[in-house]
Design brief:
Length: about 140
């Protein structure tokens, strides 16, 4: 089992399995009702968070009235980890003038190195029906 988590700025937060992350996104999608929120979650699930959407995602996850108590209790560390990576990405940009995007990655070495270095163009080229990169490693073993 590969470990999955969030990456952004200079931070990696390891959280759980790919099945857990998929469940987190599934429950988020069930709780978010507006089209813009759903588009944002879809972009993040498949690709990454564009810099201009960091505050929107932060607002979405901090508006906990959107979420049931079960989702909040079960996935509290996911909300906290995502917030941490968003803040790290914003700080990295302020300090260095470079956006190190917030994305879901495999956190195990050597895979996390590949994911951190993966170009945004590769993410942008993913079709809507393709698997996100973080779900493609499930059956691969370490090199």
């Amino acid at each position: 089992m590969k470990h999955i988590g969030f990456y952004g700025g200079s931070s990696i937060v390891e959280l759980g399995s790919s099945a857990d992350m998929a469940e987190f996104f599934n429950l988020l999608n069930q709780c978010v009702e507006d089209i813009e929120g759903k588009k944002l979650l879809s972009q993040f699930y498949l690709r990454y968070l564009p810099f201009e959407d960091l505050n929107n995602m932060l607002s979405l996850i901090k508006d906990q009235d959107n979420f049931s108590g079960n989702l909040l209790q079960k996935f509290q560390k996911y909300f906290e980890g995502l917030e941490h990576c968003i803040i790290s990405a914003k700080g990295f940009y302020e300090d260095f003038g470079t956006y190190s995007p917030v994305k879901v990655i495999v956190t195990d070495i050597p895979y996390c190195i590949t994911e951190i270095d993966r170009s945004l163009e590769e993410y942008d080229s993913l079709g809507e029906n393709e698997l996100p990169f973080w779900l493609r490693y499930e059956n691969k073993s370490a090199i």
